[in-house]
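Posting for a labmate who doesn't have an account.
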Amino acid sequence: MSGSYDRPLGHPTLQPTHSGLEHDPYSMPLSVPTTGPPPALDVGTTETRTRSRTRRPDPTQTTAPIVPAGSVTGRSLTLVITIMCFLACLTAGAVYMMNQSASAWLRDIASEVTVQIEAKERADVDKTVADVHTFLARQPGIASVRAISMGDAAQLLEPWLGQTDALRTLPVPRLIAVELDRNTPADLDAVRASLGQQFKGVTLDDHRRWQQQIRTITRSFALGGLAILLLVGAATTAIIVSATKSAMASNREIVEVLHFVGATDRFIAREFERHFLRLGVRAGIVGAAWAMFVFLAMPTLMELLGGGTVTIAEMRRLIGIASLDAPGYFLLGIVVLVIASLCMLTSRIGVYRILNSQH
C-alpha cells in the first residue's frame, strides 16, 4: 500500500512507530502511543475541551437560592402571614383609635363640671339658678358658666323618657354647665364647700366616676388588643417554625452539599433569614394595606349595611372618626416591621436548632 491515501477530513496524520513501515493508521490498533491523543479524536472536540478548561466563570451568572420561591415557603405561607399581619394591624389600629377617643373624652370631662340645683316646692328655682350662676362666675379658675334651660334638660331626658308633656310637671333638677380654665383650673373642693354653705340643695359633680369608668373600659380594650397581638405572634412563630422544618427537609441534599464544600451554619442560616425577611416584608405590607382600606371604608360600609346616621355617630363617639392619623399609620408600619423581624428571627433560630441536632 502506498504512503498516500485518502483520510477523513479533520483527522491528523499519524506516523508509524517503525521506520520504513507504512500502514494505514486506522488498521493499527496498538501502534498509537499511550501518551498521545486517540487516533479517532476529532480536532473540534479537542478545541472544545481546551476552551472548556480555560473558560472563566461568567460574572453575570446568578446563583439559585437555597430555598426556592415555589417551595413550601411560597404563596401559601405568604398568604397566611398576610392574614396574620392584617389581623395584627386591624387590632392595633382599633385599639389606637379607641385610646385616642377616650383621651379626648377625658380631656373634655376633666375640663367641665356640672352644678345641680334641686327643684323644691315653694322655692323660686329660677332665682336660685341666677344666684348660683353669679357666684360661679366670680370664682377664679372658671372660664365660662352656662345655665341649662328646661327645654335643653327635656332633650337630654328624651332618649330615656321620650317626648312627653309630663316633664313639665316633674321636679326636674336644673343644671349649670361650668367650664374650667385648663391652664389654671379652679379648686373644686373649695367651690363645692362654698356652694354647700351658701345654697341649700346645690351639689357639684366633677364627673370623677365617669372618668374612672372610661379609663377602665380603655384599659380593658388595650389588654384585649394586646392579648390578640400575642396570639397572632405565637401563631406566626409556629407557622414559621413549621415552614423552616419543611424547607430544611425538602432541601436536605442542598444543605449537605453546602456542608461538604465548606459552607458554615451561619451562611446557611443567613440564606434562610433573607428569604423569610423578604417574605415577611411583602406579606406585612399587603396585610397593612388591607387594614388601612378597612379603616377608611368602615363608615361607608356601616351605612350600606343599614346602620344609618345614628349608628355612624355612635361609632364615631366610640372610636373617633374611624380613620387613622399620621401616628396611626406609623403604628401600622411598626407592626409590619415586627412581623418581618419575627419571621427572620424565628427562621434563624429554627435553622440553627436543626443543624445542631444533625451535628
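Reply:
Got it, the C-alpha cells are right above this. Residues 1-62 have pLDDT under 50 and may be disordered.
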